[in-house]
Amino acid sequence: MEATQPKTPMVSISGVNKHFGDLHALKDIDLTVGDGEVVVLIGPSGSGKSTLCRTINRLETVDSGDITVAGKPLPAEGRALANLRADVGMVFQHFNLFAHLTVLQNITLGPIKVRRTPKAKAEERARQLLERVGLSGKADVYPSQLSGGQQQRVAIARGLAMDPKLMMFDEPTSALDPEMINEVLDVMHDLAREGMTMVVVTHEMGFARRAANRVVFMAEGQIVETATPDEFFDNPQTERAQDFLSKVMTH
Ligand SMILES: Nc1ncnc2c1ncn2[C@@H]1O[C@H](COP(=O)(O)OP(=O)(O)OP(=O)(O)O)[C@@H](O)[C@H]1O
Ligand SMILES: [Mg+2]
């Protein structure tokens, strides 16, 4: 069963190429992400997953091709770019919380500065989001007083506070101790069920199977295979995907 595509995709990437010097890091990438769709990107180290994510909020520029978010081309600079970055929430492997700000201040900073939300309203929303990620008692502590899994859930709340059009996650659990991985994946799974549009790079194949509408497999800068999770995990079509799965599923 193919995932259905609405008429205006949330993200549309077409013919995108990116080089780092001699390295052709993204090769003719075409990918659309529908509104409310969860796309999991997987593939070997160095295949271009992070680079592709970073092009979507213009942390990397591209050499050729087109990218639109919610039907609009990516802005190059200024306030429009700040708004794009707010529309595309991003959670990285390392938490990137501001160490000198409390949890509440971390979450309200963007809404106050970029969205110009009044402070009281931003704080009210931040507290709701903290409750949603299971951290209602932690508003006034500093990031260093939290576990890695808690910090990562704050990072998710911080992204959500901007009312993003989509959320991108680049290996959000890879730096976490095993017992903290599920608390983060559970929050992500809830978000997926609530209809958030998500692009997720992860090595957590269980999550990919449960939460993804589509799995996109990359190798050497190319999209090699796109399929539903059941199709991909039960019956990968290409030798490269079969080889990758045989390695990641055995340990
Ligand atoms: N800023 C950069 N300058 C030069 N080369 C880069 C840069 N960023 C990425 N690369 C190279 O581009 C290729 C793709 O990197 P990328 O980080 O996108 O891979 P990845 O699929 O996310 O890998 P991993 O699973 O290890 O995170 C790699 O060969 C990497 O070394
Ligand atoms: Mg990466």
TrEMBL record:
Main localization category: membrane
Top-level division of the source organism's lineage: Bacteria
A Gene Ontology molecular function term of the record: ATP binding
Keyword set includes ATP-binding: yes
Cellular localization per UniProt: Cell membrane
Keywords assigned by UniProt, alphabetized: Amino-acid transport, ATP-binding, Cell membrane, Hydrolase, Membrane, Nucleotide-binding, Transport
Domain ABC transporter: 11-245
Catalytic reaction annotation: a polar amino acid(out) + ATP + H2O = a polar amino acid(in) + ADP + phosphate + H(+)
Topology within the bilayer: Peripheral membrane protein
GO CC, alphabetical: plasma membrane
Entry EC no(s): 7.4.2.1
Broad class of enzyme this protein falls into: translocase
Similarity-based family: Belongs to the ABC transporter superfamily.
Protein name per the record: ABC-type polar-amino-acid transporter
Taxonomic path: Bacteria, Bacillati, Actinomycetota, Actinomycetes, Glycomycetales
